[in-house]
């Protein structure tokens, strides 16, 4: 074999081994990790940047995040300004050209959806999302839509595996639709809820719950006594629950719940693991919080 032919064959072998390597995926949140795990399959390697019990708004770019992004083949982010406080800085530090905003390997889930509008007035200040409410992971139907869109993105990048990506996404969307319908049927009547922040607005897309007010007057700003007193006065004598995420400060929500005689439900917003079973279990937990 000539030297030229030898190196051509070696190059083909090496390129084939590179293509066969597992896809290195990074997801900003556990919910996005669920999408990545389901659609890409178990052979893909996954790293989730934000711990499940942390607020994805309020993080700092850490060395571990930067190292994961530097090695990644693909990034799944929520978008709609949820990670704006830390992800741009982490991407700049990682200097991975594949993951720049607008590149095919950076999948922004919110771009695949028509988001619910924020209920807060931007004139109030605080952390208001002008691009829409980014907490769509609280809607299983939305998660199914994201899985379908992510499958198409993966199919474009790895056409040989496109049928498998699409089949897994379709199966997951159908599973979410059926499971969420069964869960919602356990709540026989309409429920009322006061929420600490706007993330629970997506419950109304699949659960019989009306969100009737917010403990926060300004997103990200502790509520004052006048607002809390007004909230209590407005709903005195009614029945409902107070909902808040497990990373939010509890004192104000506790005061409102005790004054109204309503239960306070402190809930995780993310699955404990980036696995579909963990997300399905989370749907059960959310519905149970309203039913009890």
Automatic annotation (TrEMBL):
<feature type="signal peptide">
    <location>
        <begin position="1"/>
        <end position="20"/>
    </location>
</feature>
<keyword id="KW-0732">Signal</keyword>
<dbReference type="Pfam" id="PF01297">
    <property type="entry name" value="ZnuA"/>
</dbReference>
<dbReference type="GO" id="GO:0046872">
    <property type="term" value="F:metal ion binding"/>
</dbReference>
<protein>
    <submittedName>
        <fullName>Zinc/manganese transport system substrate-binding protein</fullName>
    </submittedName>
</protein>
<dbReference type="InterPro" id="IPR050492">
    <property type="entry name" value="Bact_metal-bind_prot9"/>
</dbReference>
<dbReference type="GO" id="GO:0030001">
    <property type="term" value="P:metal ion transport"/>
</dbReference>
<dbReference type="InterPro" id="IPR006127">
    <property type="entry name" value="ZnuA-like"/>
</dbReference>
